[in-house]
Amino acid sequence: PTNTPTATPTEVPPMCIDNRLEEPGFEAWLDGGPGGPPDNWMIDGFDLNVQQESVTVYDGMYSASMIWFQEPGQSLYQEVSVAVGSSYNLSLWYLAEDQLGSIVLRLEWLDENGFVIGSPVESPPSVPVDYWQSLELIDQIAPIDTTSARFSVVGLVSPGQIPIYIDNAEICGDSPTPTP
């Protein structure tokens, strides 16, 4: 008898237990509905469209599909409180089948007035393939005077008519210590 190979299911790595993001898996769409944006996320851009996706999903029931047509630099973002001097790891799973479109993961440290401290840090750009991959920023240290961080998924090159799918966003690290 000949052994017939069987497909081995891909195991989804668990999300970190100290994830600072709310709705990191893009599962809740109550505020914006399926047309988006997902709950607790904001859009910075004039023609960025972020919608609920239920077929092309990395984990859970939904992911988000991103599509834009003109200006690069538009983003889906969330701001979270962080602790000065703490180390943070950021990641995001994506699927970008179109040969043109690309995104980056961007981290900006913010002071108490919401102003950016220093320069943004970005991951390498996404690459088009037909399977899920991750973008990561590892061991990012919150500088002095930081009160929060902006986690952004930034569109670089327009994907045309084919969206880029994103799922399981993370910014993992210490919670800020409350001041007495």
Low-confidence stretches: 2-9
Order of helical and strand elements: EEEEEEEEEE
The total of helices stands at 0
What is the beta-strand fraction? Answer: 35-45%
Q: Any key phrases for this structure?
A:
180 residues, mainly beta, five-stranded antiparallel sheet, 41% strand, globular, disordered N terminus
Question: How would you portray this structure in words?
Answer:
This protein is mainly beta. 0% of the residues lie in helices and 41% in strands. The chain is built from no helices and ten strands. The strands form two sheets. It has a five-stranded antiparallel sheet with strand order 1-4-9-6-7, with no helix packed on it. A five-stranded antiparallel sheet has the order 2-3-10-5-8, with no helix packed on it. Strand 6 (102-110) and strand 7 form a beta hairpin. The N and C termini lie far apart (72 Å). The model is unreliable at 2-9 (pLDDT under 50).
Summarize the structure.
This protein has no helices and 10 strands. The chain is mostly beta strands and 180 residues long.
Explain the layout of strands and helices:
Layout: E1 42-44, E2 49-53, E3 63-67, E4 75-81, E5 87-95, E6 102-110, E7 116-122, E8 133-141, E9 148-157, E10 164-172
Antiparallel strand pairs: 1-4, 2-3, 3-10, 4-9, 5-8, 5-10, 6-7, 6-9
